[in-house]
Amino acid sequence: MARFRGRGMASVNYPIGMNLGGDPSQALIHSNPDGKFTVALSAIDLGQGMKQVTRQVAAETLGVPIEDVYVDTADSDTGPHDMGSFASRGTHRMGNAVIAAAREARGVLLEAAAEELEVNAADLVTDGRGNIHVKGAPSRSITVRATAQAAQFKQGKTIAGRGIFLIPLSSVDAETGEMNPNTAFAHACLVADVEVDDETGDVTVLGMSSAYELGRVINPRMVEQQLVGGAWMGISHALYETPEPYYPNPDHGPRDFNEYLMPGPGDIAPYSITILERPAPDGPFGGKGPGEMCANPVLPAIANAVYNAVGVRVNDLPITPEKILRGIRANGGAKPQARRGGAL
Amino acid sequence: MAKVPMQFRLNGSDRAAFADPADNLLTVLRRGLNEFGPKYGCGQGTCGTCSVLIDGELHLACLTLAAACEGASIETVSGMADGPNLHPLQNAFMEHFAAQCGFCTPGMLIAAKALLDRNPNPSREEVIDAIAGNICRCTGYEPIIQAILSAARVSPAQRRS
Amino acid sequence: MPLGLRVAQSLSEAAGILAADPRARLLSGGTLVMRDVNEGRLTEGTLLRITDPAFRQMQVSGNRIELGAGVTMAAVLANRELGFLHAPARAVGGPAIRNMATIGGNLFAETPYGDFTVALLALDAQVMVLAGYGSARAVPLEEFLAGRARGEARLVAGVQFNRPQNPADFRFVKVSRVKPKGLSVLSIAAHLPGSASRIGPARVAYGAMAPMPIRARGVERALEGKALDAAGIAAARAVALEGVSPATDAIATDWYRREVLPVHLARLLGERG
Question: B74 and B35 in contact (C-beta within 8 Å)?
């Protein structure tokens, strides 16, 4: 009996968003009389961080502290339209819509402050801490809060903004079938190291390393958690999960989460991630987002690693111990493949 | 069918409910008492998101007969904070980004509390065993493990809730 | 009529209720019965709880160990006198399930569940059964399981077995796809007295290799009187599959279970004590 180690790699060229109708997102921003801002969206935060990203983008563009921005999410009855949280579109599309809305709101904010300070709006800057002052003369200042109150109760201005972002519609060339559906691509490369037990077919994921190119990382910790969590799901899809273990035979489908196999906390593989930033010209502060890419490259990398370890190519998911064991038997034994690079 | 009257302590308060004889505790908590901390994830005892403490012991509320909890002291995630002061585990989960969608979080926090209340200085393996019955779909578990280990390093006096 | 609830304060009262009412169902830890209730398989009749302290009693000092059917896996794990049973107890579910799941319930758990019962089988356990108003009768676990297969329903008061003279002679492994908690591909329990020198009367049991836990009689015969060395292990491995009829389920196929059982048996036997 022996355990064989193998290494596999996969890389991803990943389109951000989709082309349907230009894939638009809309955002609305308004200030309350106390100088706090509310961003209204229909983009859903399912835990991936939509609220946090849009909050940061809004605060940065408005020039106010992040604590003074509140994101109201996902009431599609009352909120402005959004296509939805899928297709890895959220950061790019909604981020841009929020920037557009925040720019308009900031414009009104500075106009209102200019009126109070009796200066030109073009001479004003925000300090990011809740104050608006004349460029180069910080003592000539007014708080955002006082500006909002003046706008509301004296000037009769709405400190608010509207934003929409969509990408150019791409039609299909009738002769060649060519189209250009995306304006931005993110990228990833992932290496997985596995160990295969040649008597049982059991696979242990020893570790993974990856590099992700995401445009501008708006919130590094959130990107990290998305990539870590997504990699777990990639392992889960590669080696464990299926609603039909004996497809096309529908028998023995899992009836609960004991039978629906997913790796537990005792199956975690060490994972190191490197982030590269190549800002997208049309991204919010250059941002693109990891999206589904957090899980995608793991599956082919593990399939390649299993092949590298024991010479068995499994072409249907999940890559189970039985499939590997049958492959090893069919090959007359484990057939480890050549490998470049350092020791595992 | 006559209802079963029951009284117990929930997060430190005396509560009463009328339950059907075969009701599980999760039903009585959520539908009877509007206690929405523990979640209904499966009803089969396989996901852990309904986890509660009964007399200090970790239990799955979906498989617990409510009527058997007469006189018990039940704790849910809703009772972990002390007014505005979050429990060290709750702070640690925030600091370590140990929640994404949050659906597993109530169960994870209660399972972690059950661990730290008994074993204030757990090893990584012991933390893994403690959350073995709680499924997470989003985080890949590592941030949760780190959060629990980090909360364990907070002094017991700060941790007492 | 929806489900009702009764509470029996003594084991004999419970036995009487169960004997008189064919639709009464004993609720022990709840991990099996409450799931049936939640999933709509149990909608009529009576749930029966037992509050008799004897149901949860543990008699662990001395050579003869007696554990009430209501003793939980967690109670086994908390008891240092039962250290040799900690691996099987830990193999049941996660920590919450272990606070709830009982020895008695595990006797009725359908394959691939029932790993604690596998350990009891390798310990030659007897099941204390109550029928109506009488005293408990000892039934060898194997016979009890055969009765379970025939659909016989009896009230289990507890289990009894002898403490292994040397706890290192008792080995247990649960093979699962995921860790630290997962359903069994298979489990193996082995009591090999004298395994440091020459094996005396061996008891080996399998889980998830048949419709219920079974004795591996071929392996027992192969090991008795032998040393636990490479030759002995090879002899045991050669007959490892005698008597097995594993199922195909969501976890593994019968083919796979047959392929890897000898592997895991040999590894379990080859471990240093």
Answer: no
